[in-house]
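Hi there,

I know you've been waiting on this one. I reran it after we fixed the sequence typo, so this is the corrected version. Both the input and the resulting structure follow.
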Amino acid sequence: MTSGSSKLLPFTKMHATGSDAIVLNCLKKIPQNPQHLARKLCHRNTGIGGNQLLLLLKSKNCDFGVKVYNADGSEAQVCGNALRCIARYVREEKLTPKKELLLETGAGPRQVKISSKLIEVDMDEPRMKGKEIPVNLSGRIVNRPLKIDTKDFRITCLSLGTPHCVVFQEAIDTFPVTRFGPLFENHSVFPQRVNISFVNVIGKKEIHTRVWERGVGETAGCSSAASAALVASVLNGFADRSVTVHMPGGKIEVDWNAKDNHIILRGPAEKIFTGEFLLP
């Protein structure tokens, strides 16, 4: 029972390699002020709790549209985890019979393929010039020096619709991600902030990554960051173009196609629970 001024908001809680998201079916109505709603719903103590709020939308040119809002209310133009969650959601809710979908994002359309266990996402081509990422540095940003606090790092940067910075580190299990993550994210060299991946290359086909996600914090898994980690590993000569990326929330298979330059990732997405949230 609700009061006359309150209403119940149906939602589905999902996760992709441990990174949780709240999905709202907005095919009929789009909520007002989604930035504020994201901050409210994603709050771990007073809301549902999640890294992101995902809005499923109608699209004129694609099968569906997707809007992604981080826990702090900022909008992400595209997110591999979000696309996998949405793809799994529309199939389980029987909103489409298709196993191949075209999803409209803020960074352009993205193709997804749905199987019983994994979702495959075409993340398009990486952009690697400083002004395209954007980074306040010229040319390609590969193995460039950057001082954070009192520590010297070497950074490799690229965009997959959102800006990414990759740092190669040994012993990343004990690396202080929560200390350096926000310092990287808010550094003046990144005008739109940045997602930062701390990467340990295990071998030519295997890498280990911890991610500090822009607008969220450290996450158990980030598909875009896994893709960025692969590209950076290839550019620095550390890995082949097909790798398994291990993250705290699980693993993702990522390929960087040498012919069309597209990045293809494959990973799971699962429903956790459904419910209704009481809005004032």
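Quick highlight: The longest strand covers residues 7-16.

Best,
R. S.
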